[in-house]
Amino acid sequence: MTKEEERTDFIREFVKEDLAEGRFEEVCTRFPPEPNGYLHIGHAKAININYGIAEDFGGEFNLRFDDTNPVKEEIEYVEAIKKDIRWLGADWEDREFYASDYFEQLYEYAVQLIKKGKAYVDDLSADEIREYRGTLTEPGKNSPYRDRSVEENLDLFERMRAGEFPNGARVLRAKIDMTSGNINMRDPVMYRILHEEHHRTGDEWCIYPMYDFAHGQSDSIESISHSLCDLAYEAHRPLYNWFLEELEIFHPRQIEFARFNLSYTVLSKRYLGRMVEEGYVDGWDDPRMPTLAGMRRRGYPPEAIRAFMDEVGIAKNESIIDFALLEHHIRQNLNQHAPRRMGVLNPLKVVITNYPEGKTEMMEFVNNPEDESAGTRMVPFSRELYIEREDFRENPSKRFWRLGPGREVRLRYGYFIKYEDHVKDEDGEVVEVHCTYDPETRGGYAPDGRKVRGTLHWVSAAHALDAEVRLYDRLFFMRNPLDVEEGEDFVENMNPDSLTVLPNRKVEPSLADAKPGEVFQFERRGYFCVDPDSTADNLTFNRTVTMRDTWKRIEKRLRQQKKR
RNA sequence: UGGGGAGUGGUGCAAUGGUAGCACAGCGGCCUUUGGAGCCGUUGAUCCUGGUUCGAGUCCGGGCUCCCCAGCCA
């Protein structure tokens, strides 16, 4: 067994130190999504880090929904999130928690702080609180309600819970320091009144804790050793620590890392949600979406996403990762695992004039040259075939190795065929190519040792299945779609041609019983995944990713040379 | 002009005072029954500026640029 190179990064270094110094005895991490949207590739990084570190150090990994705001959260999202995490391969075993499980305990903690004189009920309105908070450069000032007695605070807080006050009437705040340079420390709100049905606790509560008052304590309750989160929470760490210290409870260590961006897309639940709501895409699981649900539907293997995450690494640098790196990992995985099939996206009819009419022979095709155990399959060959329209040219250049006047090419696992003639319609469009085959070259080998440069994929016209093929392109034109001029909207950077639907394309008969979610390589064309919409009457494939296309690059260069 | 972070090839990540390396992308070649895959080679970087040191991407001083924080969102 080859020993995997030890992953290391600054977080793992910290964890190692903490263990060595006895700060923690065992490692426990968590992934804390808010159930207010679907998970995207950015979340995969957080999952990968948290799950990976627990795994590396023999610790535990918890799933905890951060469901402290009933106005935004829905059960639909918790189900979708669980499905996505499971699909990615992170296992939280039986440790599925909810911040709402801790509402009673959190309430007790709040009471403790009130008794300590560290929290108070404030009657200021939201606007007033904002005014009193000061600005980035000016200190805030104390609320006139800041020095209420413990008894009064206790009474008021109890009545807040009892539902005596309307939304917004009062809040519970921590009593810290209104002059702090860190705005998060200027008496942050701990509880607000929200007469709102919660997806788990129903109408049991009408006050709900804020993130800052819920997250650290939830970590503590679960004995999380390392609370790993994104850089945005760096400024919250002093507050995270403050609550834990004042409460004198188990104190996890919060460590922040940078999240990343993917080029030519956006990664934020808010913007992705907008794209769904405003109909720019067909839903959270649209295969163009950088959501995990979208990528699953697109055919991205979870293993490839994890390998990609590992390579992206962990740092505190804000980055925009090249989409090409993701695609590299998709291709690398699929090249190993995806069975090969024949699919013709732009069919052009070829007639083998010297092949008997009505004859069909079965040719043996290799299922995966990268994996001998994948075996072979039989594919019908006959007189009339479809090849790819771009595999024929009337005036081919010498760099073009495919079919054209005077050319001989190989039909993959079929025969060598030689050009005879071609016919056009009244618009000058080539509609048929006539060729002759060499019976000696069955399977694609020439007994006389003669070479042909080009090898084409094909399907037998009489046996081919019709299929709808959906091609996807980048959702946005710009590397960073959010980099817009003042007053402009990121949706203006959307690519109107990110989806192309090709009806009635031709695929080989063995694809008749392909199941939704299965991914195949259509040789020379790319990887294609059976869409959940697919039916026996309307086979539907999503293009996962194209093949690397060296020829396209060569042509581009030739064109540029011609221009000069 | 408060507080907190970050600056290494085109992109991302390493180098923990001692030869700036890896991956992707690019470029060139070999090979090939996928112009795929594979293999080989190659271009290209330490934000600026002083200092410490035999030696600085790394340590110290000054500056510059970028990001985050003024929700009763998370």
Give an account of the 3D structure.
The chain has helices at residues 10-20, 41-56, 75-88, 103-115, 126-133, 150-162, 211-221, 237-247, 269-277, 292-298, 302-312, 323-337, 550-563, and strands at 28-31, 60-65, 96-98, 119-122, 171-174, 189-193, 207-209, 226-230, 253-257, 260-262, 319-321, 340-341, 343-344, 347-352, 361-366, 376-381, 384-388, 408-411, 416-424, 430-438, 455-456, 459-460, 465-472, 499-507, 519-522, 526-530, 539-546. It is α/β, with parallel strands linked by helices. The chain has 3 domains: 3-257, HUPs (Rossmann fold, 3-Layer(aba) Sandwich), CATH 3.40.50.620; 269-339 and 467-563, Ribosomal Protein L25, Chain P; 343-457, Ribosomal Protein L25, Chain P (Beta Barrel). The strands form 7 sheets. A 7-stranded mixed sheet has the order 12-25-26-27-23-24-13. Strands 21-18-19-20-14-17-22 form a 7-stranded mixed sheet, with no helix packed on it. Helix 2 packs across helix 11, helix 7 packs across helix 8 and helix 11 (302-312) crosses helix 12. The longest helix has 16 residues, at 41-56. The two termini are 55 Å apart. The model has no long low-confidence stretch (mean pLDDT 96). It binds one RNA strand of 74 nucleotides through helix 5, strand 6, helix 7, strand 11 and helix 12.
